[in-house]
Amino acid sequence: MNAGNDIAIDVRGLSKSFGGREVVHDLSMQVKRGSIYGFLGPNGSGKTTTIRILCGLLTPDSGEGTCLGYDILRDAEKIKRQVGYMTQRFSLYQDLSVRENLEFVARLYGLADARGAARDMIKRLGLSGREEQLAGELSGGWKQRLALGACTLPNPKLLLLDEPTAGVDPKARRDFWNEIHALAAEGLTVLVSTHYMDEAERCHEIAYIAYGHLLARGTVDEVIAKSALTTYTVTGELGGLAAELDHKPGVDMVAPFGTSLHVSGRDAAALEASIAPWREKSGLHWQKSHPSLEDVFIELMNRSRDNFQ
Ligand SMILES: Nc1ncnc2c1ncn2[C@@H]1O[C@H](COP(=O)(O)OP(=O)(O)OP(=O)(O)O)[C@@H](O)[C@H]1O
Ligand SMILES: [Mg+2]
User: Fold this and answer.
1) Are 24 and 14 in contact (CB under 8 A)?
2) DSSP code for 136
3) In this structure, which residue's CA is closest to atom 24 in ligand 1?
């Protein structure tokens, strides 16, 4: 075990199949201690499966590595004790109150002062005044805060959050992310899966996986830069333009964003040639722009669908 290491997760060549279908393919990743690492990718791309392998709940068919310095194959029990895992559907006891849920978790983990720990957490999460409310009767945003509280209560070193903010309103999501950053600043490592671009942008590093393949990783800026996408934002009289450009050589993606259209491609020369006739058209304004993270992900997803499906 290498406890002094500043890498919290270090895995290589992870693969996993279910019923003969490979859902995680040769995946390697490193996550620094104290960082927030975002996991993105389309539905069914293997995010949850990977999270479950990392915390020792699932055994990979092949691959190796460490989580918190422990071997993911041999030391699963040790890993589990130091990991807080917020599952895709929060696991709260609906018929217990906020306070009872937290005290229950505290006792489960053998904390010396379960009542005190629950009380502190209620304060930290801003749940004061809701202690006796049943978990099942909380709104989605409050349930999510309580679930986060429950999984950070035993002072884990690593938090695995699987789509923690799905279906939660923007204000609650922002508060949640502020809390995640505060925890990371205290040294906690966070691996979080999400479908939201604004959340990806709040991570220190991200990885994009599609159909089990890790296609891009790095900081948001690195991922955008590496995509080598040329993108134009078109405004004006857009009627019919999207349909006309779609599938032209060099045009990998056409997507409306509000009142504008994003047109992107990896082969800049081919893209320029295809859009040339429309660039002269009056009533249309073309502006070369940086691709957004969403542009990059959609392009990766389109490409991976062609490659792996
Ligand atoms: N225990 C299992 N048995 C059989 N198939 C499984 C099992 N767990 C996951 N799968 C399949 O593996 C693939 C990857 O699933 P996984 O849940 O890891 O994807 P995901 O990226 O988390 O998707 P989502 O964004 O929808 O949560 C899916 O096709 C899923 O149906
Ligand atoms: Mg999932």
Assistant:
1) yes
2) G
3) 43
If DSSP codes are grouped into helix, strand and coil, which group holds residue 65? Answer: strand
pLDDT at 1 > cutoff 50: no
Please, are residues 42 and 48 in contact by the beta-carbon 8 Å criterion? no
pTM: 0.89
**What is the C-alpha separation between 53 and 63, in angstroms, rounded?**
10
Choose among 267, 255, 213, 260: nearest CA to 236: 260
Torsion of CA 85, 90, 96, 100, to 10 degrees: 30
Instruction: State the closest ligand 1 atom to the C-alpha of 51, by its place in the atom list counted from 1.
Output: 18
CA atoms within 13 A on the CB side of 103: 11
Q: How confident is the model at residue 309 (pLDDT cuts 50, 70, 90)?
A: low
Tell how far the Cα of 24 is from the centroid of ligand 2, in angstroms.
12
Q: Identify the sign of the CA torsion 132, 136, 139, 145.
A: positive
